[in-house]
Amino acid sequence: MKKILIWAAVITLFFITTFIGTGIVNEEKLKSDYYVLIADIGELFKDHAQKEDYFYNRSYSRSEEIAQLLEGRVTDKGFHLIVQSIFDEFNELYVYKPQYQEYISDTRNFSQKQKETNYYDTVRDTILNPALGLIPFEALKITKDKNRVVITGQDVLVVFYDNREKFVEYHRYARFGFPPSDYISFSLAFIYDNGIYLLDDFIINPQAM
Questions:
Q1: 176: Cβ contacts below 8 Å, ≥ 6 apart
Q2: 3-state class of 102 per DSSP?
Q3: How many CB atoms lie within 10 A of CB 173?
Q4: 61-78 in b/e burial notation, b at 16+ Cβ within 10 A?
Q5: Number of domains making up the chain
Q6: Domain interval for residue 128
Q7: Which one-letter DSSP state was computed for residue 197?
Q8: Whole-model pTM?
Q9: Residue 187 lies inside a defined structural domain of this protein
Q10: Which of 54, 62, 75, 199 has the most other CB atoms within 10 Å of its CB?
């Protein structure tokens, strides 16, 4: 009788881990982890400071600081992909990559009224694109293969503001070069580990404006 009970328990556990554990996505948890991740990544391009000719993030300029921010959000691979997409190393500091350097330098050139760059053009095709945090989760496609879950957005419409608004030029998005709306395509791959969805890979591919 004991052997029958033991085998029944083993079969039940196998069924749970094989068919339930690998076949079902906890969409509420995935949704929460996705939006928190995007918000945390956005912190990496703020609080600008300058050392010599380079701009960097005053709060997150060292590997351990960035790792602490993204702890429990990314795999090792995901961590390095994020860092490499935003920063270069300079004298033990992580400084912004050239495209971000150019944007910050341009905004601080007060002698030039017409700026050559704007915020949205700078971040549009990157993981820093604020549109990623504005897209309704229901508009995204979720696919799963074992413990790997991929969130995909294909030509998803993102509306930033109504162009017919009064004083639209003062809208917080319009002031930073955002169009009224845009389409974006992207995919983010997560690894499910101990109840958490960890970013492992990403591709950001907005459509032509």
A1: 118, 119, 120
A2: helix
A3: 17
A4: beeeebeeebeebbbeeb
A5: 1
A6: 26-204
A7: E
A8: 0.83
A9: yes
A10: 199
pLDDT tens for 70-115 read 999 999 999 999 999 999 999 889 999 999 999 999 887 645 555 6
- Assess if residue 15 is contained within a domain: no
Residue 206 in tokens: 């907005």
* Tens-digit pLDDT profile for residues 27-37: 999 999 999 99
Would you give the end-to-end CA distance of the chain in angstroms?
69
Contacts of 38 (CB under 8 A, 6+ apart): 132, 133
Q: Which helix H or strand E contains 48, and what residues bound it?
A: strand 48-51
pLDDT tens across 146-199, in order? 899 999 999 999 999 987 776 776 678 888 999 999 999 999 999 999 999 999
Give the H or E element holding residue 69.
helix 63-70
In angstroms, the CA 12 to CA 64 distance is 42
CATH number at residue 157: 3.10.450
